[in-house]
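sry for the spam today, last one i promise. struct tokens for design, 289 residues
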């Protein structure tokens, strides 16, 4: 990936990108916890420009909670921008504290990840471990941030003040295919707090989301796990197309084939963090056989 031309537009986001480059150059080398999402892909692209491929590496943590489709995308993007990548198996599923799915589940997941990446960075001679946390992520419930602090993991996007919208805009300027990619947190986020996380449950959710995507559903999508019931969330603009006729039946059949018995369409549309939110029956459309 080559640097953008000097004719690139000016503005606060571009200034913050310059600050990001300065931050990276000051560190000298960086190992990035790389998922292939909007933020980590952008950080990797900027780091490659600032430091080169010999001093930049992305590390993917593989586990049942990481969707296969996201792994494919991550590898494709890395190949496109020339990012060296390693993969490492994480074992958070073997931690009963994580598997119990408490409200601070992400703390145990990130502790496992950074406990592997921090020594790997030392072994490979990289000065800094960084994640893709952005400025918007500093608000709200973020238990994983505590693990990052404990393992001295830096969040350069957040440090220079880059928001998600700015990262998308700057990614588009760089020609990164992730600029309009929907957010995709780990599969465990589809299970309500307190519902035990198992590989089988995650596999059902992943299969259902893959099946819905195969129908052509675009934008944000979640299949929330509620036992034998799958609650499907999609962008409001997509909802009407899947509530009637053959589309409705096809959507239900694909999700049932993934292992669920009942399929509900959430008429409120997609909203982040909805797994644990109360809902009344009037907000659900049950897709009958």
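last one done:
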């Amino acid at each position: 990936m080559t640097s953008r031309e000097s004719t690139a537009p000016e503005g606060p986001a571009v200034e913050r990108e310059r600050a990001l480059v300065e931050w990276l150059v000051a560190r000298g080398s960086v190992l990035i916890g790389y998922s292939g999402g909007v933020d980590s892909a952008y950080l990797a692209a900027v780091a490659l420009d600032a430091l080169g491929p010999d001093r930049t590496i992305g590390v993917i943590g593989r586990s049942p909670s990481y969707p296969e489709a996201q792994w494919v995308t991550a590898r494709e993007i890395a190949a496109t921008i020339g990012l060296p990548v390693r993969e490492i198996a994480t074992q958070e599923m073997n931690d009963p504290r994580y598997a119990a799915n408490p409200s601070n589940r992400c703390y145990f997941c990130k502790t496992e990840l950074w406990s592997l990446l921090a020594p790997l960075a030392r072994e490979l001679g990289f000065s800094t471990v960084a994640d893709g946390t952005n400025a918007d992520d500093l608000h709200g419930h973020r238990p994983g941030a505590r693990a990052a602090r404990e393992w001295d993991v830096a969040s350069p996007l957040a440090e220079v003040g880059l928001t998600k919208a700015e990262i998308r805009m700057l990614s588009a300027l760089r020609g990164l295919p992730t600029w309009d990619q929907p957010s995709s947190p780990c599969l465990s986020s589809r299970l309500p707090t307190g519902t035990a996380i198992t590989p089988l449950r995650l596999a059902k959710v992943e299969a259902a989301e893959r099946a819905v995507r195969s129908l052509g559903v675009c934008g944000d999508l979640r299949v929330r796990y509620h036992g034998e019931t799958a609650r499907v969330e999609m962008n409001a603009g997509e909802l009407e197309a899947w509530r009637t006729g053959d589309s409705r039946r096809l959507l239900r059949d694909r999700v049932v084939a993934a292992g669920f018995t009942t399929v509900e369409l959430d008429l409120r549309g997609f909203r982040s963090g909805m797994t644990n939110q109360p809902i009344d029956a009037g907000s659900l459309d049950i897709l009958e056989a």
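The radius of gyration is 20 Å. ok im logging off now
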